[in-house]
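Weekly puzzle thread! Below is a chain. First person to post its structure in token form gets bragging rights.
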Amino acid sequence: MSRRIAFSLIALFVSAILLSIQSGPIIEAAPVVPAGFTDAALFDIARPTALAFTSDNRVLVTTQPGRLYVYKNGALLGTAALDIAAKVCSNSERGMLGVAIDPGFDLNQQIYLYYTFNKFGGCPTDTTGQPVNRVSRFTFKAAPNIDQIDPASELVLLDNMPSPNGNHNAGDLHFGQDNLLYVSVGDGGCKVDQTTLVGNSSLCAGQNDNSLYLNLIGGKILRINRDGSIPTTNPYYNAANSRRCGNPAGVPSGAGPCQETFAWGLRNPFRFNFKPGTNSFYINDVGQNIWEEIDDGQKNANYGWNTREGPCANGSTSDCSAPPANLTNPIYSYQHNTGCASITGGAFVPNSLWPAAFEGSYLYSDYVCGKIFQLSPNASGGVTSSDFISGL
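Winning reply:
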């Protein structure tokens, strides 16, 4: 198995480590892997959150406190390539959460980071002065310092994405085949005031309906150009009174829909991933009390949170009839009574590189039960899930 493929498996579970920091240290176990696969430790790093691969065989590793490291020639470089910890809130589920490589990296050496910015000098919850999530573009230095990023190269592309309660920040970002940048944003944990964007601690969890408001940027998949501008093909680009809600210059006044929105009605789409060679992607949306779900990323789809969880009405396992008009059910979901209760990383199996039984499959992980699963197409046109790796 190639190093790149091995790393894709690591990425499935390493992105879940963020969720463990409040419950004590990780205790290593011996994973149970299928025949023909091995589990091998490549490096140790504290509080990793995401991985990305450059075309020159480097691996970029983000860490929650706000530092990015480079894995190169079989070793993790000891000095951080970028250290912006002084401006990152890393309490609760906040932090440096995602990284993506520019499609033209060979020429421009540019990468994109998602992080929680202590915009007002602190990291409180549900009060004025709370931090915001942002997406910025950074550039690696020229030779001989090619493994270092100049902090001054930062160009903020998306800003002012509320983080009212500390959790549900989402934070994944990937380029599609269309060379557009897709970004996942969580619902913030608690409802925000539509004018001040300050959280209301009495309306959290299942009572938080931020995701269903098109004039709020939370609980969405966003899509932007590489310079932060809005693609004219986005669903609400030309809608009446539409606004660039993530404008780094400030949130525009008004109550029109956010032009960045590609899909909506999501709770905490912590990780998503594109099928190789296509513009199709799956979204892993972390559930509330009963369901975890995988959604097919579709333009202008509304996945229904907080009125729906999984394939059912919020909080139900029996009110699961066809979704109301204009709402989209997940392609796959599972209940917490399985022992699994927090879907995290996901990756499609590379084309024509794995055994035939894995062709077209999607791998996803669950932090609570410590497993990676294989989601495969079935004869009825749906998908079937089976264990792939356990004991994580």
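Puzzle host: Confirmed. Bonus trivia for everyone else. Confidence is low (pLDDT under 50) at residues 1-25.
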